[in-house]
Design goal:
This protein is mainly α and 241 residues long. Helices cover 71% and strands 2% of the residues.
Length: 241
């Protein structure tokens, strides 16, 4: 969906992503549709027939919108709206897959809240480096409207409250105890928000890679660390026996 958004030639991308000028958008479009088709086929085989179309429909409304008379519905406009849309889409999509065989809706509420909050925060973090293009395009993102310091403070509070909520859910026995995942998520988020969110005028490649590692590489690191610690635990049990 993000690649599809780039192929639809949104005017803010002419400033935010000038490196895409002259790129083969037809190839990117083909790759996007192929990825969607493959994902939809996998979900169809699991009996999830409507879920694949949620990001596709919302993705189009996000990028291009629809115009009916004087009504122009585009989900990118409005302060924080595009972040809420992305967060809702990801949260619903992940919860829909996780809840396929769930008997209790309460854990799913926490799953939705956690992933929605995480995606909302991550999307705002990337808005920092797009302030110039978003301003010219009239897209009122949080960094554009609130400024850097207030946005960072807001994200930090939301991040901490989200993890406090997950801790309470663990204490009440609503969700499973996953200390590695939650601790890594907590500290990686705090580091990224406080140190690597706002882009500088001459941002180094190393700084960009660290931010992308903390945001896009978070789930991979969490699962890898979880698998590693579980392996150590099993090794110690077998060795002690």
């Amino acid at each position: 969906m993000y690649t599809l958004d780039r192929t639809l030639e949104c005017k803010e991308d002419t400033v935010n992503r000038s490196e895409l000028t002259g790129s083969r958008k037809d190839i990117a479009f083909l790759v996007s549709i192929s990825a969607f088709s493959a994902g939809a086929l996998i979900l169809f085989n699991e009996g999830l027939y409507t879920l694949p179309f949620l990001p596709l429909i919302i993705g189009y409304l996000y990028s291009k919108g629809i115009k009916i008379g004087r009504l122009n519905l585009k989900l990118k406009s409005g302060i924080g709206i595009k972040n809420l849309v992305v967060a809702f889409t990801w949260g619903t999509f992940i919860t829909g897959i996780a809840g396929k065989s769930a008997d209790n809706i309460v854990p799913l509420i926490f799953v939705f809240s956690f992933f929605s909050s995480k995606v909302f925060i991550n999307s705002v973090i990337y808005d920092f480096k797009d302030v110039k293009g978003d301003s010219l395009a009239g897209i009122r993102t949080l960094p554009v409207q609130l400024g850097e310091k207030k946005t960072i403070a807001f994200l930090l509070i939301l991040h901490i409250l989200t993890h406090i909520g997950m801790l309470l859910a663990i204490i009440m026995g609503i969700i499973a105890f996953e200390p590695i995942i939650l601790l890594y998520s907590l500290f990686a988020g705090i580091i990224c928000i406080t140190c690597y969110s706002a882009a500088t005028e001459a941002e180094s490649r190393t700084r960009k890679l660290i931010r992308e590692f903390l945001v896009d590489g978070e789930s991979t690191m969490e699962i890898s660390l979880r698998a590693f610690t579980n392996s150590l635990f099993l090794w110690n049990v077998l060795y002690s026996n």
